[in-house]
Amino acid sequence: MQAAVALFVEDARSVPIVDAAKKLGLKFSGNRHEHPQPCPQCGGSDTFAFNTAKNKWNCRAGGAGGNDGIGMAAHCEGLDLHRRAHFLEACAIVLGQPIPDEAEQESAEERSRSLRRIEQRRRQNETNAAGKSGTQLEFRERERQRARAIYDAAAPVGKYGRPVADYLAARGCGEISSSRWLRYASSLAYWHGQDERGHPVALHAGPAMIAPFVDRSLVAIGCHITWLDLACAPKFRPQLFDPASSELLPSKKMRGLKKGGLIPLFGDPSARRWVGGEGIENGAAFACWENWRPDTFYFAAGDLGNLAGPADPASRFVHPVLKTPDAKGVARPLMIAGPIPRPNQDAHDAMWVAQHVTELVLLADGDSERVMTAAAMARARARHARPGRAIPIVWPRPGSDFASMAAEAAKRVA
User: Fold this and answer.
1) Nearest CA to 53 among 131, 150, 132, 147?
2) Which end of the chain is more exposed for a tag (fewer CB within 10 A), N or C?
3) Buried b or exposed e, range 25-59, using 16+ CB within 10 angstroms
4) DSSP3 helix / strand / coil % (the chain, rounded to 5)
5) Alpha carbon distance 269, 296 (integer Å)
6) What is the pLDDT of residue 150?
7) In what order do the strands lie in the sheet with 183-194?
8) pLDDT class for 179, splitting at 50, 70, 90?
9) pLDDT surpasses 50 at 378
10) In this predicted structure, what is the pLDDT of residue 125?
């Protein structure tokens, strides 16, 4: 029955992300391609997403991702792909079929048919993969160009970008007069969903803070967008709802390329001391607390996955308390991406750090799940470690982040 199992696996490899998502009961947000949502395995609010155009999935919380339905099913269901039984179970989930009985005998004719189908499916999968690769490159380049156009059209934070300074001040980040990196758009469309003709819909248009994702050459490869509403405390961002589901939508988006890049906030990257974490507000609040040290470059990674990179699958461990229901409603132990980086890391797996940096201060979030965050921060330290480089991890008060702590302190002073 080995041929039947091999064919079963090749069939599973051919299942696109969109079909696997339906089998897993994942949420389609109404956006054209990107579908963010809580991770079925790690929790959170919008930590997990799959993209039907790129045929990719990503979990920022778990530091995991890929471009096939089998891996996505394994992550969502807490399965270990290095264990054969778990791998076949993930294949069964995306196919919606039972695993072939390996004890069942097959005739020579059945085996011959299976082998022919395996070879046909294998060739088709290779052809599909090559086509997807070209399509994804074209998609990535279009997104990069669109992100660069958004950033280039925005005004520098200074004379024309006062709302950005007011927003950061309201978030506890102190008073900034200008920024080499941050920019301001007076009215930027928030695209979400489609109309009856399949055209994208501008759900909202309003002021926004625009920050670039830059590569090692400091060239913008993407942008981070935060829509602003200074009348909407405590986050001072607009509350946007999906017209179809009435669910609250994120008021931040990323366009273009993110992986491997970082968001520069304040200071010069030539500094030997770097300070940053996931979000812009936390980095800015910490910079304010340090009184904008002139010897420091402040940055943001955009999310935890880009800060820490993917984990070595062998370092995954069981959460000491939390469990999660599988597709059948059975409570399974919650698996956490471990503190060890994946071997043979790619340079674009996570944000870059310049070789000359001798002190890299990593800012953790205290309002995220503690065990998962601690493992990711340890992984980030291990990934970015170099001889002679100190990498302290700084934690805010439990249940808070540095921006909320700074905002509370500002209220007490006032």
Assistant:
1) 132
2) C
3) ebeebbbbebbbbebbbbbbebbbbbbbebbbbbb
4) 35, 25, 40
5) 8
6) 92
7) 155-156, 183-194, 200-214, 220-227, 252-256
8) confident
9) yes
10) 59
Which residue has 């950005």 as its token pair? Answer: 164
- Residue 242 in contact with residue 30, Cβ under 8 Å? yes
Beta-ladder partners of 362: 276, 393
Distance CA 379, CA 187 (A): 39
Which secondary-structure segment (H or E) carries 274?
strand 273-277
Q: Report which of 200, 193, 248, 191 is spatially closest to residue 30, judged by C-alpha positions.
A: 193
pLDDT for the residue numbered 1: 44
pLDDT (average), residues 138-142:
76
- The contacts of residue 141 (CB under 8 Å, 6+ apart) are none
Q: Bridge-partner residues for 191, per DSSP?
A: 202
Determine the pLDDT at residue 120: 67
Tens of pLDDT, residue by residue over 141-169, are 888 888 989 999 998 887 667 889 899 98
Cβ atoms of 362 and 279 closer than 8 Å: no
Looking at residue 253, the DSSP 8-state letter turns out to be E
- Whether residue 217 contacts residue 245, with contact meaning beta carbons closer than 8 Å, is answered with no
DSSP 3-state of 252: strand
3 state DSSP class of 135: helix
The tally of CA atoms less than 13 A away on the side-chain side of residue 111 is 9
Looking at residues 341-365, what average pLDDT do you find? 91
Helix (H, G, I), strand (E, B) or coil at 85: helix
CA 238 to chain CA centroid, Å, is 22
Q: CB under 8 Å to 100, separation ≥6 — which residues?
A: 1, 4, 5, 8
The stretch 286-294 carries a mean pLDDT of: 91
Q: Give the three-class secondary structure for 176.
A: coil
Give residue-wise pLDDT tens across range 18-68.
888 988 888 887 666 788 888 887 766 677 888 887 788 988 776 778 888
Task: Say how many CA atoms lie within 13 Å of 187 toward its Cβ.
Answer: 3
**Using CA atoms, how far apart are residues 11 and 250, in angstroms rounded to an integer?**
36
- Helix (H) / strand (E) element for 208: namely strand 200-214
Q: Which residues pair with 202 in a beta bridge?
A: 191
